[in-house]
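User
Class, as today's exercise, I want you to study this protein, comparing sequence with structure tokens, and judge whether sequence predicts the tokens.
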Amino acid sequence: MRSRYSAYALASSNPDLKDYLLRTWHPDSRPQHLNLKGEDAIKWLGLQVKRHQTIDADNAVVAFVARFKYANDLGGKAERLQETSRFKRIDHCWFYVDGDYQ
């Protein structure tokens, strides 16, 4: 979870991190492309992991709050993304499956 957040936060200055985000996304839910520029560009301000729960050896959930601002409005108010994400382990590697927003 933290590595994916860091990759999102640093992706604008390191394009290889976009590939990392796609590689760590579960194949069943992975998008074809990630648009991290233009109107959708975000400046990430902080991450707070609220809860981590291991469901079984290959499934886990992470509840978190991430603060951000849209890059085209850095002087504006910060927003919050609150999500409970599902992760699945395949061949000793964790993959982001999906998440529920609160």
